């Protein structure tokens, strides 16, 4: 019987997943803080760990790092399952050794169980795959730095893969621009004007000026507000106004902002194409510098 350890500081969630995984035929133990997790996992010897990040006593990232530092858990599947919307959390978790990163906000219990079943099945078929991946990433990160550093446009629709590639490239000193490579939707308001995307606010650039829909029928996101402030600090004019879909042909750049998207360049919306230009890249850099811990930024 396969064993799973669920690490979550919310007793209700711990109980829910204990019940559901037990019904699937797994033996389950639950830890409610980071210190308890580091005690339970070596004793219970699980085949997989479902790990929250926002934990008392010792946070989830530190738990992850300590487990990966132990050769006994080098290839143990550890799925980070967290509700935090902190920017860069996927990259941090992948860099620390997470097998996969899931969001509590958009992953149902049924989906979690399906992912756990698939992960364990893959681990049973190829027990060395996790070690090989970790080794490949480590070797890439340790490779000699290229003398030529520049801007890299990354198109990848898989969040975990994108996080790994972005982390490695940024460690090498490259500036990475992630362009949406998956299908999203630009939504219109009830009068047929541009409003927002499914989970982000939208901006356009024309003649050096930034245009964005007036936030009167959708959420004025915190990231949106921050980016507007950064743009104005840079001296860019930001115009909040009504925008009609027919105007998109006149814009040269487009980007979206949000807790998950951060500041992300957009290459194409339906028949309209955009180029990630100087303003978009400048705001991506400014936003990263704004939200990244100073110590981490200095070490990067």
CATH topology (fold) name of the largest domain: Rossmann fold
Number of strands: 16
- Low-pLDDT residue spans: 129-143, 295-300
- Per CATH, which architecture of the largest domain? 3-Layer(aba) Sandwich
* Helix-strand sequence: EHEHEHEHEHHEHEEEEEHEEEEEHH
Number of domains: 3
Distance between the termini: 43 Å
Radius of gyration: 21 Å
Order the strands across the largest sheet as they lie in space: 2-1-3-4-5
Largest sheet: 5 strands, parallel
The CATH class of the largest domain turns out to be: Alpha Beta
Average residue pLDDT: 82
CATH homologous superfamily caption of the largest domain: Response regulator
Helix vs. strand class: alpha/beta
Strand content: 15-25%
Label the overall shape: elongated
Helix content: 25-40%
């Amino acid at each position: 019987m396969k064993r799973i350890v669920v690490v979550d500081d919310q007793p209700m969630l711990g109980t829910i997943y204990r019940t559901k995984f037990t019904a699937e035929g797994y033996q389950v133990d639950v830890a409610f803080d980071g210190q308890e997790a580091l005690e339970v996992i070596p004793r219970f010897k699980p085949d997989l760990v479902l790990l929250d990040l926002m934990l008392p006593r010792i946070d989830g990232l530190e738990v992850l790092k300590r487990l990966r530092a132990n050769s006994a858990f080098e290839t143990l599947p550890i799925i980070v399952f967290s509700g935090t919307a902190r920017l860069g959390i996927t990259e941090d978790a992948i860099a620390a050794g997470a097998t996969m990163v899931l969001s509590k906000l958009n992953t149902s219990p049924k989906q979690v169980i399906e992912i756990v079943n698939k992960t364990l099945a893959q681990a049973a078929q190829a027990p060395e795959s996790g070690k090989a991946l970790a080794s490949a990433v480590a070797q890439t990160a340790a490779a000699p730095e290229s003398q030529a550093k520049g801007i890299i446009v990354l198109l990848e629709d898989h969040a975990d893969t994108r996080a790994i590639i972005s982390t490695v490239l940024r460690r090498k000193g490259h500036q990475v621009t992630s362009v949406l490579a998956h299908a999203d939707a630009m939504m219109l308001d009830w009068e047929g004007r541009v409003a927002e995307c499914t989970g982000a606010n939208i901006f356009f650039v024309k003649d050096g000026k930034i245009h964005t829909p007036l936030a009167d029928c959708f959420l004025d996101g915190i990231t949106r507000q921050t980016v507007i402030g950064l743009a104005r600090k840079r001296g860019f004019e930001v115009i909040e106004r009504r925008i009609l879909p027919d105007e998109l042909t006149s814009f040269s750049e487009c980007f979206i902002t949000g807790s998950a998207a951060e500041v992300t360049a957009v290459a194409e919306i339906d028949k309209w194409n955009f180029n990630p230009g100087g303003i978009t890249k400048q705001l991506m850099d400014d936003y990263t510098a704004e939200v990244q811990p100073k110590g981490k930024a200095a070490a990067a």
